[in-house]
């Protein structure tokens, strides 16, 4: 299978075809969301999947300090909330609209899951996309653990290498790299 961008493109196109082909079973709802609006809440039941057609949103997680940590900024033509379809059925992150209004299409999760029973290609592509996102998460955890180990042992070379890789992730992850390096100052 291709890279994550290729998979996203395939899933987006398949979603559009699915909506057109299953218009009697899947009732998509188009809506507009304003800047600052929370579209999906971490820990909330995954009742819908969203296709962002215009605008920009932040993917954020909240941990023990309660503060949002931005993991990614995503733009139009992105699928949102699909990870909540599987596993424990709750959203793993907040999704918040950024600077300008966003246009979205919402699909009921149960309707989508039923339609996926008849579209094996979509099911496989969606699972592949989710798998790639999980692999990226594993890679990030590995980098953070390397950074903690390097900071703890005083290994400046490993810390610099790790922090450089973390900074490429942007947002809160880049801030974490700065904080790790600050431990050795």
What secondary-structure arrangement, pairings included, does this model have?
Layout: H1 4-21, E1 29-33, E2 38-40, E3 48-54, E4 56-62, E5 68-75, E6 78-80, E7 94-97, E8 102-108, H2 109-116, H3 120-153, H4 156-167, H5 171-182
Helix pairs in contact: 1-3, 3-4, 3-5, 4-5
Characterization of the model:
This protein has a domain at 4-117: Sandwich (Jelly Rolls), CATH 2.60.120.10. Helices cover 45% and strands 24% of the residues. It has 5 helices and 8 strands, in the order αββββββββαααα. It has helices at 4-21, 109-116, 120-153, 156-167, 171-182; strands at residues 29-33, 38-40, 48-54, 56-62, 68-75, 78-80, 94-97, 102-108. The strands form 2 sheets. The chain has a 4-stranded antiparallel sheet. Helix 1 (4-21) runs antiparallel to helix 3 (120-153), helix 3 runs parallel beside helix 5 and helix 4 (156-167) packs antiparallel against helix 5 (171-182). It is elongated, with a radius of gyration of 18 Å.
